[in-house]
Amino acid sequence: MIETQFYSVKPTxxxxxxxxxxxxxxxxxxxxxxxxxxxxxxxTCVTASMDSIDFVRPAKSGDLLVLKTAINKVWDTSCxxxxxxFVENQETKARKHLASAYLTFVALDENxxxxxxxxxxxxxxxxxxxxxxxxxxxxxRLARKTKIRE
Length: 150
Known about the structure:
By secondary structure, the chain is α+β, with helices and mostly antiparallel strands. It has a single domain (about 1-150), classed as Hotdog Thioesterase (Thiol Ester Dehydrase, Chain A, Roll). Helices cover about 30% and strands about 35% of the residues. It has helices spanning about 20-40, 125-150, and strands at about 1-10, 45-50, 65-75, 80-90, 95-110. A five-stranded antiparallel beta sheet has the order 1-3-4-5-2. The termini are far apart. The model has no long low-confidence stretch (mean pLDDT about 95).
């Protein structure tokens, strides 16, 4: 299931070029995904990884950001959440892609140890596609993590 949130870009979110800080976008993505993971699991969830982010276009003060999130796959104690951000034109309501990212969250018990997460029920072709693609991304992440440890 895709969830939608909105954020209005404020003057304090802007860099010297008067566009939103990349760090603000990263903060929005991580914060929103953490909420989605917590709501799904009922547990405290921590960010284990965030894939690279490509900033497709800028956003300026007063722009409305539309953040769409979905839990793509749940493993034993972790899940992958995809976040896609759009800039919405206030007059036409047309949306243009701003940035996307995939994050992995781990659910923790009261002792701070990984704990099982409830599985998701796939209903649509889109959900099944995201589920399959999440497994491919996980393999890449785990391979990268192994290389880092060597």
